[in-house]
Specification:
mainly alpha, two-stranded antiparallel sheet, PBDC1-like_dom_sf, PBDC1_metazoa/fungi, yst0336 like fold, Protein PBDC1, Polysacc_synth_dom, 154 residues
């Protein structure tokens, strides 16, 4: 049985488990960034429920700045309550909806320690679906291609 699929209650603050979670979150972030750096992210399908997630997200978070996330706002008591209500709506539909996942605070930049926020998987889906559909992630592909082209010329 995969240790990461076991209930969290079985573990205390085990640094080995925390390291495995961090590695898994980083691998997910790396794969996702490689995808949006390589293809047009607008039609990208993240889950079978993308349309519903996006619709509800934009109804409930219409004013959220998805280009530059404010971690303090998201994790304030009011923000946590609003996000918890949103996230729980998908508990029975989205696999691993509560898994810790990294998201870029500033959508115009790559993942770095300073530009990464730990969120739940459903928060990642909601924000990244909005970023993809609203064209926020479009520049990433252009920047990545330009950097890759520059690397080949060196």
């Amino acid at each position: 049985m995969d240790v990461l699929s076991r209930p969290a209650e079985e573990f205390e603050n085990d640094s080995q488990v925390e390291a495995m979670w961090a590695m898994k979150a980083f691998e997910h972030a790396e794969v996702y960034f490689n995808i949006i750096s390589s293809v047009d992210p607008k039609p990208l399908k993240l889950t079978p429920f993308d349309d519903t997630i996006y619709k509800i997200f934009r109804e409930e978070f219409s004013d959220l700045n998805i280009v530059q996330l404010n971690e303090d706002e998201m994790k304030s008591p009011e923000g946590k309550m609003k996000w918890r209500s949103f996230c729980e709506r998908f508990k029975k539909f989205v696999e691993d909806y509560s898994f810790g996942t990294l998201i870029r605070a500033d959508a115009t930049k790559d993942y770095t320690q300073e530009n990464s926020i730990l969120v739940s998987r459903i928060q990642f889906y909601a924000i990244e679906l909005a970023r993809n559909r609203e064209g926020v992630n479009d520049p990433i592909r252009r920047i990545f291609k330009r950097e890759k082209k520059d690397d080949l010329n060196e």
